[in-house]
Write a structure and sequence with these properties.
Keywords: Membrane, Signal, Transmembrane, Transmembrane helix. This is DUF3999 family protein. The protein is of the alpha+beta class. It folds into four domains: 68 residues; 106 residues, no CATH class; 116 residues, Galactose-binding domain-like (Jelly Rolls), CATH 2.60.120; 116 residues, Jelly Rolls. Strand 19 and strand 20 form a beta hairpin. The longest helix is centred in the C-terminal third of the chain and has 35 residues. It is elongated and about 140 Å long. The relative contact order is 0.24.
Length: 429
Amino acid sequence: MQRGRMILQASLAGLLCLVSLNFPGQDIAVAATVDRNSQWGFTKPIEIAGKAPYHALYLDEEVYRQASNDLRDLRIVDGNGGFVPFYKDSGITAAEEQSLTYSSVLVHTAKKGVNTSFDYKITPIREDADIQGNKLVFTLPDEAFLKHVQVLGSYDGNVWEPLTKGDLYSTDGGVEQNSIELGTAYKFSYYRLVVANNSENLNFSTLLLLHNSTELKTTDYRRLRTPAYEIKKMGDQTQILVHNSDHLKVSKIMLKSTGNFIRKYELLDGSERNIETQGDGMLYRLDFQDAQDAQIAATDIVPFTTVTAPSFTIVIYNHDDAPLSISGLSMEYLIDKLVFAEEGVGPYRLLYGNPGASTPQYDIVNFKAHIEVEGVALAKLGAESVVPKTSVDSSSQVGWFQSRIWFNGVIIAVSLLLIIMLIRKMNRT
């Protein structure tokens, strides 16, 4: 009896071993492994021009259309499929803001024909400090006017150097221009304002000299586009729906219009939430009949931050006036630049279109200043293609799985038959 039990236990153990060895679950799991690059939806080849330690490429509209809004899913891969470190440069460099304001004293006024000149002496901030300024700000008369002016500078108040020309104006609607940009910083101690055709004897008695070094650099990162848009009249409003299906980073909207007008406007996103804009929220276009070649216009809308919404709306408040005649609309958008080192084996590709990806962290961003000084070679993106998905052939797996089940069934049946025969033989003995 003891020997029979031992034989029975051994037979059962053998049966379990056969079943476990032939179970196909582990093989199916291995076959279902997917290449990590197939998690991205789209790819573009990177076309490199010659050998260089670093390369840069500008993103195009197709990338913005398919990538995440914050571009966290961008990846560069080499010929072996490995990720290549890079950093993203948006091209916006805000200089440290330094602003100085100098007061002045009106020291002389002269009338020559219909022109009037005003001479101002700048008051230095300290006696041992140089005067330096790049903008003149005037206190304007209370009445509505438009005057062509000329600005001159002098170190001693005797010898004058012409600097620039411009316009000063004020309207009944509250639109005004009270400053003249000099274009560069000067160290003059005296400034002269010449007001042309000043038959009204307008007085410009107060001047402030400003030195402002704030600068926003976006020179190589701007593009222009004419988007699709729709204009609707809703009561006393003109609503312009602008489409941005590529999720471009819109930095300015330019309206083309005719006629004289002053209108308040708002910029709304797709959820009708207000988008803050620079300026006083006014659009205007004014033609002065009493001034030759004088036209004042502000028909550009500049948001404080770029707009990437798939659509946004410009709401213009007409009140009781006729709707504006909008003859065209264009927009300016900013693009990003990727910079990477030529490491590994080419060809290189850009991957994008992975909502589940997170922003990569690469050390190369710490060497940005060094790389920009050393210089980079400009590469470009090729045609977009869809990343093929790696998948398991389900039909072959099912057939293989069914054949293994039949094989296991036969093994189990034979094992049971052997156990029965052993038990019967044991009982006879």
